[in-house]
Fold this sequence. Notes:
The structure is a single chain. The protein has 336 residues and is mainly beta. The chain has 2 helices and 28 strands. The strands form 7 sheets. It has a 4-stranded antiparallel sheet, with no helix packed on it. A 4-stranded antiparallel sheet has the order 2-3-4-5, with no helix packed on it. A 4-stranded antiparallel sheet has the order 6-7-8-9, with no helix packed on it. The model is unreliable at 329-336 (pLDDT under 50).
Amino acid sequence: MGGDDLAAEAAALKQKIRDCRKEMCDTQLINETGDIETIKLTLRVRKTLRGHLSKVYAMDWAEDSRHLVSASQDGKLIVWDAYTANKVNAIPLRSSWVMTCTYAASGNFVACGGLDNLCSIYNLKTKEGNVKVTRELAGHDGYLSCCRFINDEQILTSSGDTTCALWDIETGQQTTSLVGHGGDVNCISLAPDGNTFISGSCDTTSKLWDIRDGLANQTFEGHELDINAISFMSNGLNFATGSEDATCRMFDIRSDQEMAVYGGEHIICGITSVAFSKSGRVLFAGYDDFNCRVWDLLKMEQTAALMGHENRVSCLGVNEEGVARGGTSPLYWKLG
């Protein structure tokens, strides 16, 4: 069987999967939520965290809902105390072209990476009291787009080389290479159980991976352009994506279905970041038009907007206490 025959067979199988999905989709989310009222939110800026000298590209909350880490083009990784708006640590980076950062659940480590193709891990709680590099993980052939700690011993990364990777932090070795996307992998989100994760790619698809066997068990289609952002809901059964096609979408893992599309003709710019509220009723999405839109997931309507940034919203995050933070300059909002 030649290459053309194999390609035709693969295309036919993919179409068969799409047809099966349509047959199994017996209702639409909007049809089941007609009697529910649109949620009303009161949003206000609580603090502005000032300290970076250039664009902020990434941020991540600590598990304690008090501390967070941000990465900027100024070549600094800053750990903040959100209660006081003070800097706890300002960590100089070898490369200012940083694209991602993450905070370990233990609070012991932060990590970052970018165009240097490395994942650099910093120990915040050394015996000497200073912050120092613990490991520099080298192995990707393209830029590092995202990194997330599984625990203090393992970290997950995604890259422009079309792969994701699982690393042993102690040895500095890549233990698993997860291959399956047909384009740059832009974003990843770890499931609450720590055994699976989802990825979003320039190939317009998102995939569900099992860390234990390194395989992609499901592929979700729907977007027309690059997927820039992805986030699991706290239940571990649904996730949201944000794309250059100016839409956010919500998917259900159990039914293998796209559940809803969030967008409109008035929105013509790409989405940079997404995050669910603590309850899972609301989706926050950062946009290239300087706004963060707030979507009612059940009604598929925009219910509010967070305004205040003077440039594109490059990143956002919601902590366990319901505080949303994000942007090119670090603002954060209290939700109430």
